[in-house]
Amino acid sequence: MDNPVDLSLAEVRAFAHHEQITQHFCIQGWSGVAKWGGVSMQTILNLVKPKPEAKWVVFYSLSEGADAGIYYDAHPIEQMSYQLTMLAYDMNGAPLSFGPGAPLRLRNETQLGFKQVKSIKGVEFVEDFKDIGGGYGGYNQDHEFFGYRQSI
User: Fold this and answer.
1) Over the stretch 29-53, which tens digit does the pLDDT of each residue have?
2) CA torsion, ordered 20, 25, 26, 29, to nearest 10 deg
3) 3 state SS for 33-100
């Protein structure tokens, strides 16, 4: 993006508040229901106005992955305008704590739990992700699913 937008958490909290009650599905076999509060990704799209060639949204975490290196994940840009896609800063009526992903957590309800990036420090709109991390679209894809840990 040519014109980066740098926002504090207080500025993000000043946007129109969005709430939803949704079920979280984990690939490890568990699920849970929570009430999430935050800002709709549509609001972020309206603010940033990504270039037409942007096809992916990359979410960067404050946390490192298990093999070191920044944790990140890419999502199709069209999913950002879905009603239930948001940056959450509250869970069940209280500010997010460390475990659920403070200060911001992605909620993209069209994706499984491992795609819901926790502790977000940055968001980038890109044409492709081939030069980000290992080029597979996310830390898990770079390291865990296609790496040396598991044979296919």
Assistant:
1) 888 899 999 999 999 999 999 999 9
2) 150
3) EEEEEEEEHHHHHHHHCCCCCCCEEEEEEEEECCCCCEEEEEEEHHHHHCCCEEEEEEECCEECCCCC
Cα(101)–Cα(125) distance, rounded to whole angstroms? 21
Read off the pTM: 0.89
Q: Which domains does the chain have, with CATH numbers?
A: 9-145 (3.90.420.10)
27 vs 33, 77, 112, CA distance in Å? 15, 23, 7
- CA 35/CA 17 separation, integer angstroms: 13
Please check whether residue 43 is in contact with residue 15, taking contact to mean a CB–CB distance below 8 angstroms.
Answer: yes
pLDDT (tens digit, 9 = 90+) per residue, 40-98? Answer: 999 999 999 999 999 999 999 999 988 888 999 999 999 999 999 999 999 999 999 99
Separation of alpha carbons 35 and 95, rounded Å = 11
**Two structure tokens written together for 71:** 């944790």
Q: Evaluate whether 64 touches 70 at the Cβ level (below 8 Å).
A: yes
Q: Residue 142: which residues within 8 A CB-CB, separation 6 or more? A: 133, 134, 135, 136
